[in-house]
Write a structure and sequence with these properties.
Layout: E1 2-6, H1 10-21, E2 26-30, H2 33-42, E3 47-51, H3 59-68, E4 75-79, H4 84-93, E5 97-100, H5 105-126, E6 128-131, E7 134-137, E8 142-145, E9 148-150, H6 154-165, H7 173-180, H8 191-203, E10 212-215, E11 219-222
Parallel strand pairs: 1-2, 1-3, 3-4, 4-5
Antiparallel strand pairs: 6-7, 7-8, 8-9, 10-11
Helix pairs in contact: 2-3, 3-4, 6-8
C-alpha cells in the first residue's frame, strides 16, 4: 500500500509516518497543499491523507482540484476540533472521510484500511476513464474509441492514462518524461515525440476527430473535440 501524507506540522507528520510504516505502509510526504496536489495528480497512491489548513493550498482546495481532474484516489482529511464548516466543504468537494485531531493512531489506521478496501472494490467495478468517445478501463487495461478496441503497448497505455488524467491541461515533455518514464528529461532525446506519434496513429488518425494536440513550445494536451481552436 502506498499513501501520500500532506501535513505541514512536522511533529504530526513524523508521528503518522511512524505509525503507518509500522503497518508496512509506504508513505510519501508533502509539507504544503500545492506540493501534495502535484504529487497526487501525477503519481499513483492508494490513499491521500491531508490536513485541511495548509500553506499554499488548503486541503479542501486540493480535493476540489483533484476531483475536477477526475482523480479517483480516496482522500481522508484531518481537521481541527472547531473546523465543522471545513469538514462539510471537504466532503462536498469529494473527500471520502475526515478524522478530527487529536486522534488515536489505531483509529487512523483502521480508517486507512477501510477506505482502501472500499476504493479497491469500487475500482474493480468502475475504474474507467472517459474523454469524449475515448475510454480506458484501468483494471483490464483496455482502450476503446467508441466501440473500437485499440491495442496499446504498456508504455503507450501509461502515456495515454497520464494525458487523460490531466485532460484539458497542457503537459510538458519534461513532465511526461519524469512521470511516465520516471527519468530526468534529456532535451536531446525524441522518445516523447516518437511515442506521441504512436498514440496519434492509433487514437486519432483512424477517426473523424482528434483528441491529442500539440501546444507548440509547451507540450501536449488531450481535450474534447469541441474545444479545438
Amino acid at each position: 500500500m502506498k499513501i501520500l501524507l500532506v501535513e505541514d506540522q512536522v511533529r504530526i507528520m513524523e508521528s503518522v509516518v511512524q505509525g503507518l510504516e509500522a503497518e508496512g505502509i509506504h508513505v510519501d510526504c508533502a509539507n504544503n497543499g500545492l506540493a501534495g496536489y502535484e504529487l497526487a495528480s501525477s503519481q499513483h497512491y492508494d490513499l491521500v491523507i491531508s490536513d485541511v489548513m495548509m500553506p499554499r493550498m488548503t486541503g479542501v482546495e486540493m480535493v476540489t482540484r483533484l476531483r475536477e481532474e477526475q482523480c479517483p484516489v480516496p482522500i481522508l482529511l484531518l481537521t481541527g476540533m472547531g473546523e465543522v464548516e471545513q469538514k462539510i466543504k471537504g466532503l462536498e468537494a469529494g473527500a471520502d472521510d475526515y478524522l478530527t485531531k487529536p486522534f488515536e493512531m489505531g483509529e487512523l489506521i483502521a480508517r486507512v484500511h477501510a477506505l482502501v478496501r472500499r476504493s479497491q472494490g469500487a475500482h474493480s467495478r468502475h475504474a474507467i476513464l472517459q474523454i469524449a468517445d475515448l475510454s480506458l478501463d484501468l483494471q483490464a487495461r483496455i482502450c476503446k474509441r467508441g466501440d473500437v478496441t485499440i491495442q496499446l503497448t504498456q508504455k503507450e497505455f501509461d502515456l495515454l492514462l497520464y494525458l487523460m488524467r490531466h485532460a484539458g491541461r497542457v503537459v510538458s515533455k519534461k513532465e511526461i518524461a519524469e512521470q511516465v518514464w520516471d527519468i530526468h528529461f534529456d532535451s536531446s532525446t525524441n522518445v516523447i515525440e516518437v511515442y506521441m506519434s504512436y498514440l496519434r496513429n492509433k487514437i486519432d488518425k483512424p477517426f473523424s476527430s482528434s483528441l491529442i494536440h500539440t501546444s507548440f513550445g509547451a507540450g501536449y494536451v488531450l481535450r474534447q473535440p469541441d474545444l479545438e481552436s
